[in-house]
Amino acid sequence: VGNSIKLKAVLDIINKVADSDSTVLITGESGTGKELVAKAIHFHSSRCSHPFIPINCGAIPAELLESELFGHVKGAFTGAISQRIGRFELADGGTLFLDEIGDMSPHLQVKLLRVLQEKCFEPLGSTKTITTQVRVVAATNADLEKAVALGKFREDLYYRLNVIPLFVPPLRERQEDIPILFQHFTHQFNKGRTRKLTGISTDAMNFLLNYNWPGNIRELENLVERLS
After folding, report:
1. What is the pTM of this model?
2. Interaxial angle between packed helices 5-17 and 34-43, expressed in degrees from 0 to 180 and rounded to the nearest 10
3. In the prediction, which pLDDT does 75 show?
4. Which of 90, 51, 79, 84 has its CA nearest to residue 67?
5. According to the model, what pLDDT value does residue 128 have?
6. Three-class SS of residue 51?
7. Exposed e or buried b for every residue in 156-168, given b needs 16+ CB within 10 A?
8. What's the confidence (pLDDT) of residue 145?
9. What pLDDT does 195 receive?
């Protein structure tokens, strides 16, 4: 949502790369809408009839994330009382969105690199190799180049992910989009409500235009929800 030059540049890249199978690395501050960009890439591609499967690599402990990604067979570890299908298998033919990829453990980075290179993996506890035709879109608000220099992120994985880099600008660099976004969220939150937010004063809008927005679009959305 918006008409700024910087947003149009992002949309232009989305249109150009959507039908490619190349891996995309989306970077930008928290709250800028990186998952929305990933969804736009998927739903503008020929994969749109197949699943879009998101997973937050920073929200799941490393020992559980491996099972979430690759699945496991019954008895693979303590508590594995039944077979589980992983996200790579669920997303076959579609797009797997790996959010906060910078938080992935070194052990899983090695396994992810193999999937990206070989297009196959084994569920935990299984000797059966599963082939996958998944497009991977990753996102991070961290400086992965710095993480590589510090030895916290594999250099070979970074270059495998960063085939198509896509930077999502912060809201403070998209000032002309703020009134449009405000109207968009107002319309969204007014639906089904008796008391509706009908507008905003010039002084209030000027305040929003000059605010730094450390939480970016998510912060603006939360503000409009409170006002509504």
Report:
1. 0.91
2. 40
3. 62
4. 84
5. 86
6. coil
7. ebbebbbebebbb
8. 95
9. 82
Q: Which two tokens stand for residue 225?
A: 């929800």
Residue length of the chain: 228
| Local structure of residue 20 (DSSP, 8 states) | -
User: Residues of the chain whose pLDDT is less than 50?
Assistant: none
Query: Tokens 């450390």 appear where?
Result: 214
pLDDT attached to residue 196:
86
Q: Structure tokens of 227?
A: 């006002």
Cβ contacts of residue 137 below 8 Å, gap of 6+?
23, 24, 26, 38, 41, 42, 95, 96, 97, 98
Pairing label, strands 130-131, 120-121? antiparallel
Instruction: Please answer whether residues 25 and 141 qualify as being in contact, where contact means their C-beta atoms are separated by less than 8 angstroms.
Output: no
Distance from C-alpha of 80 to C-alpha of 86, rounded to nearest angstrom: 13
DSSP helix/strand/coil, 183: helix
The pLDDT value given to residue 180: 96
Separation CA 30–CA 39 (nearest Å): 16
How far, in Å, CA of 176 to CA of 163, rounded?
A: 30
Phi-psi category of residue 132: left, alpha or beta, with phi > 0 → left and psi -120 to 50 → alpha: beta
pLDDT tens, residue by residue, 31-66:
999 999 999 999 999 999 999 999 999 999 887 898
